[in-house]
Amino acid sequence: MEKRHYEIILSGVGGQGTVSSGAVLGEAASSYDNKFAVMSCTYGVSARGGFAKSDILIGTDFIPYFEALHPDVILVLSNKAYPKIRNFITQNTLVVINSNEVTDYNPDLGQVYPFPFSEMAFKIGTLQVVNIIALGFIVAKTNIVNKAALVKALKNKYPGEKEAGVNMKAVEEGFKLV
Predict the structure, then answer these.
(1) CATH assignment of 5-176, among 3.30.465.10, 3.40.50.360, 3.40.1280.10, 3.40.920.10
(2) DSSP character for 53?
(3) Residue 57 pairs with which residues in a beta bridge?
(4) Cα separations in angstroms, 2 against 6, 55, 60, 143, 144
(5) Per-residue model confidence as pLDDT tens digits over 113-135
(6) pLDDT for residue 5
(7) Residue 77's closest CA among 98, 57, 99?
(8) CB 145 within 8 A of CB 58
(9) Rounded Cα–Cα distance for residues 168 and 27 (Å)
(10) Cα separation of 173 and 84, whole Å?
(11) Model's pTM, two decimal places?
């Protein structure tokens, strides 16, 4: 890692897995990649359909704060999320967009990578892996954590044979996008 700390925001609506993805990424960093990680999350009163966001900070030493102030990476899974995180985007921010769900965004703000994550997840067999495909892409593109660490954290979070299989397919689809 060249930087001391990386700041990531995963955003969408409740039910899209932004909180669980944040937990997986943090565990991958801290438990399996010998890094420090901090995570905080924000979500509305409705568990499904309301704005949801995870801030994950990953670094090579102690991280003295808990919120992404200048995110290096932002994932946007829903149109509802984009207006809430737009002001965090700089020209250097890697902005990963679920193009099946997010249609109202500025393609010139940040380094934008739109992908049809929902369509890809549907082909795998479940829309529940939209977040994991995106996470695979983010890890492959940035090397914030290594792939083996991500796989271990996913297997720990989703230990069932069926869940593990579909999540591994999702990670691979994300890595193929790079």
Answers:
(1) 3.40.920.10
(2) E
(3) 7, 38
(4) 10, 20, 9, 11, 10
(5) 999 999 999 999 999 999 999 99
(6) 86
(7) 98
(8) yes
(9) 16
(10) 28
(11) 0.94
